[in-house]
Design a protein that fits this description.
Helix content: 40-55%
Number of domains: 2
CATH topology of the largest domain: Cathepsin B, Chain A
Radius of gyration: 24 Å
Strand content: 5-15%
Number of strands: 5
Largest sheet: 5 strands, mixed
CATH class of the largest domain: Alpha Beta
Structural class: alpha+beta
Shape: extended
Length: 246
């Protein structure tokens, strides 16, 4: 859609991209000097989610209503006002023209409505274990077949996380307390720690609300004891039990 709304893209999206690049470059400069922002191998750690979120909030705070209105005005779009099609950005003007050639227009923007050829996953019992508790679903999946009580497992895993140098600086005491008391939703950090602690390869398939595959990622270790297959939708996890080694 950046062709149709190109002025809006320039005024808003690119402004954010430039701001993000500046903040990331500044972070990278610090990370190359600060051991706390480096992995055990000496590489710069990725910025924490909270850090990136704060960059976004800072950028939003730098924008006022006038700048947003101006971005839409550049496209010829003014809220609740009549407009002259001659004043519109050319791609929009072509679309709204009385003699628009829809066949030609569809050819130009065919890529915006491509067929969805993503894999459809069948996530259902008995092949998949579907925990009832959404917030703790990841832990219940990791626990499947182990027999350890949930609170003991969470305590063991979080204590182990605090010893992993690769996770240094990626969480604070408040986050850890939230994981332990069930008010914070576990995710990538806990998956990485579980893979290291158990010596498992953990394959995570992320799906959308219709169970269409969005992405796949594997947490791997040397001499893996077994492979655990998880599926994730938002913060909810399920584990494949068909062939799961208990």
């Amino acid at each position: 859609m950046t062709n149709i709304l190109q002025p809006l893209d320039v005024a808003v999206n690119r402004s954010y991209q430039e701001y993000y690049r500046d903040q990331y470059d500044e972070y990278l400069g610090k990370a190359l000097k600060d051991p706390l922002l480096q992995t055990k191998a000496g590489n710069a750690k990725v910025p924490r989610y909270a850090t990136v979120a704060q960059w976004t909030l800072d950028w939003v705070a730098s924008k006022d209503s006038a700048s947003i209105k101006r971005a839409f005005t550049l496209c010829g779009l003014v809220s609740k006002q009549e407009f002259d099609t001659d004043d519109l950005h050319p791609p929009l003007r072509e679309l709204l023209a009385a003699d628009v050639d829809m066949e030609l227009w569809n050819q130009q923007y065919r890529n915006l409505a491509g067929t969805d050829d993503r894999d459809q996953l069948d996530i259902s019992a008995p092949r998949w274990y579907l925990p009832d508790d959404r917030v703790s679903s990841l832990f219940y999946c990791l626990l499947h077949g182990i027999g350890t009580p949930l609170n003991e497992y969470v305590a063991e895993l979080t204590s182990y996380m605090e010893t992993l140098r690769d996770l240094d600086g990626l969480f604070d005491a408040g986050y850890m307390a939230g994981i332990r008391d069930g008010t914070e939703e576990p995710g990538e950090l806990e998956l990485y720690a579980a893979s290291q602690m158990h010596r498992w390869t953990i394959e995570v398939s992320t799906v959308d609300t219709t169970n269409k595959l969005v992405s796949k990622f594997s947490y791997t270790v040397d001499d893996s004891a077994k492979t655990v297959c998880l599926v994730r939708s938002g913060s909810y996890f399920a584990v494949k039990v068909d062939g799961y080694a208990i």
